[in-house]
Amino acid sequence: MSALCRILLIWCLSQTGHSVNLPDLGHSARNSITLQHETRLAQALMQQLRQQRLLIEDPLLTDYIQHLGQQLAPPEQTFRFFLIDRPDINAFAGPDGHIGIHAGLFLTSQTESELASVLAHEIAHVTQHHLLQAWEKAQSLTLPQAALTLTSLIVGAATGSDAGLALAASSQAALHQHQINFTRQHEQEADRIGIRLLAEANFNPHAKASFLRRVSQANRLVHTPLPAILLTHPLNSQRTAEAQDRADDYSYTQQQPDELRYHLARVRLTRQQKQPGLTITQQQTNLQQGRYRNRQAAQYALILALQDAQRHAEAQPYLDQLLAQAPDIPEFILAQVQQDIQHQPEQALRRLHTALQQMPDNLSLTINHAELAIAQGQYQAALTQLQKTHIHRPDAPRIHQLIARTAAELQQPDQTHRHLAEYHALQGNLTTAIQHLQYALRLPDLTTPARIRIQARMDALQTTADQITP
Q1: Between 20 and 30 A from 73 (CA), which of 113, 114, 116, 365?
Q2: In 3D, which of 117, 102, 118, 157 has the Cα closest to residue 134?
Q3: In what helix (H) or strand (E) does residue 114 lie, and over which residues does it extend?
């Protein structure tokens, strides 16, 4: 049993005792799971994904997918969007507004509206409390079955369809049928609301139907096993036709060009996934002959390829063009920083400092600024910027790691241990996290308020660690 399976099982026990006997709450699924426990479950999910090295933690990619999701999501609810390092064509909605998109699905999309259609569908699953309703409907099941329902919904989708199917198959036949019924029951509602979210955010409302149709047709042509998204989100011709009909209800004029950052994210993700790409010569030829979807993205891909080959001088003219056209795009700024580092590292740090004045909360700029400042011995400058970003991104492990490093250089052991504790907690290494807090409590000059905060955090981590111990 995986760590998250154990977490779910103990979490179920803490909610219901040894038998599953939830009250009939009608449409009030929220009452069967508290916000606090849903948050803990989401934290456990993210820890498990990090432990299995399934999260793509490229800050530029994380920033883009979060930006896209926020355009679609209702402002009154908090969502966390992230990318999963798997080639499957899949996506999932987890607890507490956590939505994962597999790299394979991102790269299968041909337009930003197609990618947005998947995010909108998963957002609808969250806003309609489908995951909570699954738990509520499981009240007739035994505890192991109920725990397995949640696990197959979250772990199965997050780590690939095979895991989800294996979990379902290992349960009793009744649970397997329950899972299928749950999925089919809510897909239509998620389609309807998702298409409305698409249209309201000025994306192409027809993108959902076209994406699913193309994926299904491609699958039939190559006779491969069904893509994971068609297993976890079953597709039939009627559902596709209904999605098309719903899209027809919304007015849609000439499609606007995809946002530049969608194309840049595709370039970075293709590179991160180590997919076979064009040679540098082929990329240069395509640029000259106009064979590309987006010229700036094609130039960016060539720049990254030239930098990988240590051909920085050849990359500079292309980068000069991009910066002249779009000087505030983080991807282009960071590409220029890589150029500067070769011969002018001080200039690279100044460039990052200037960019952070315009985008002070940008995670990629902050991390690169801190790493370069540390390399140049400017620890206080690094720490100051890291602390600003940490306020808005307390869930970024790399920020905690860099704060700990700079604090150590500045002889601030309490900050060092506290942030190392948070770094390891986010990674799911609770024993190591608690040890660092214990080290912090032993510091002789620790103030009373700091001691109280550290003790409270250590107690919370210890409680969580006790719950997940088999």
Answers
A1: 365
A2: 157
A3: helix 112-127
How many angstroms separate the CA atoms of 88 and 130, rounded?
23
Instruction: Give the C-alpha separation, 450 to 164, whole Å.
Output: 44
Average pLDDT in the chain: 81
Helix, strand and coil in the chain, % to nearest 5? 70, 5, 25
Which uninterrupted H or E stretch holds 93? strand 91-93
- The answer to whether 111 and 119 are in contact (CB under 8 A) is no
| Backbone phi, psi, residue 56, to 5° | -90, 115
What burial class does residue 216 get, using C-beta atoms within 10 Å of its C-beta: 0-12 exposed, 13-18 middle, 19+ buried? middle
Q: Which residues contact 429 (CB under 8 A, 6 or more apart)?
A: none
- Nearest to 117, CA basis, from 243, 5, 303: 243
Q: pLDDT digits over 109-136, tens only?
A: 999 999 999 999 999 988 888 776 665 5
Task: State yes or no: pLDDT of 275 exceeds 70.
Answer: yes
Alpha helices in 138-279 (DSSP H): 143-151, 157-159, 161-170, 173-200, 207-222, 228-232, 237-248, 260-272
Query: Element (H or E) spanning 16, and its range?
Result: helix 3-16
Contact 77, 127 (CB under 8 A): yes
Q: Which residues, in sequence order, are CB contacts of 55 under 8 Å at separation 6+?
A: 46, 49, 82, 83, 84, 85
Report the alpha-carbon distance of residue 133 to residue 137 in Å, rounded: 6
Contacts of 302 (CB under 8 A, 6+ apart): 280, 283, 284, 287, 315, 318
Indicate the burial class of 455 (C-beta count within 10 angstroms; 0-12, 13-18, 19 or more). middle
Q: Using one digit for the tens of pLDDT, what is the confidence trace for 375-414?
A: 999 999 999 999 999 998 999 999 999 999 999 999 999 9
Residues contacting residue 378 through CB under 8 Å, at least 6 positions apart: 349
CA quadruple 217, 218, 224, 226: dihedral sign: negative
pLDDT tops 80 at residue 195: yes
Query: What one-letter code names the amino acid at 405?
Result: R
Distance CA 329, CA 321 (A): 13
Distances in Å between the Cα of 16 and the Cα atoms of 3, 142, 243, 293, 441 are: 20, 11, 39, 54, 36
pTM: 0.83
Here the tokens at position 261 are 């950052």
